[in-house]
Amino acid sequence: MKALHIAASGMMAQELNVELISNNIANMRTTGFKRQRADFQDLLYQNLRQVGSQASDAGNVLPTGVQIGSGVRTAATPRIMSQGTVESTEKELDIAIRGEGFFRILLPDGRTAYTRDGSFERDATGQIVTANGYTLDPAITVPVNATGLTISPQGAVSAVVGTATTATVLGQIQIARFVNKTGLEAIGDNLYLETASSGAAQLANPGDEAYGQLLQNHLEIANVNPVSEISDLIAAQRAYEMNSRVIRAADEMMSATIQFK
Question: Most buried of the four, 9, 16, 77, 226, by CB within 10 Å?
């Protein structure tokens, strides 16, 4: 009975949907996290009567046909790259991007990754790095005797070094944009990699045309709406239950058929 396989595909689809929702909820307080959703597509159809085919020798054409679907499959799990809420942290190396763009991060293997997580630190040499020690690209070093570190909305990093009376520009933060940012590959640690689908990174200074500005002493939290996620979770649970009831009904129908004498 095809209903068993059709309902099973529905249960598997909703199981994956619940997994995505649970990951969204788990990362509600993850800096720069972007939530995911599940997109579904119906499977192939079996044509028992082809719509538009000739119904008789007189040339009559069927206005409708008979098609039986095969179930559902997951087509994609895109990330929703909308702006998350920006919160004050009062930490000088916490930086939020208001608008479009990603920070560039140099990985130990030489690859360039991208992130919306602006919770940076200084390593033993004074370089600005991520919480995992990955270097901000282009690299910026803050001297040990620097005070009054400031980061402008346009990405200029400056500080008063030693006994100087004026601030010195230590470096310039650049951010990257992508034609299709939902095509980035998430690799964990709040990092993304460029792919053929995302297109090549387009670099510029913050505040340039169509690029976001930086906000020091702030962080962007996840764009997860708890109320929406719980509503989606309830809907997924009910869909899973209905598919399981279809399987139970199909089993009872087959049982009744077997018991015929």
Answer: 9
Based on C-alpha coordinates, what's the Rg of the chain? Answer: 27
Positive or negative CA dihedral for 22, 26, 28, 31? negative
Distance of CA 18 to the CA centre of its chain: 15
Residue 107's φ and ψ, nearest 5 degrees, are -85, 160
The whole-angstrom separation of Cα 81 and Cα 140 is 27
Distance CA 204, CA 183 (A): 20
pTM of the model: 0.87
Q: Where do the structural domains in the chain lie, given as residue ranges?
A: 2-48+67-80+224-258, 86-220
Query: Could you tell me if 73 and 41 are in contact, meaning their C-beta atoms sit under 8 angstroms apart?
Result: yes
Q: How far apart are CA 105 and CA 111, in angstroms?
A: 8
Question: 112, 132, 80, 226: which is closest to 176 by C-alpha?
Answer: 112
pLDDT tens readout for residues 145-163 = 999 999 999 999 999 998 8
Q: What is the tens place of the pLDDT at every residue in 240-261?
A: 999 999 999 988 888 888 887 5
**CA distances in angstroms from 107 to 48, 58, 112, 130, 198, listed in the order given:** 56, 72, 6, 10, 19
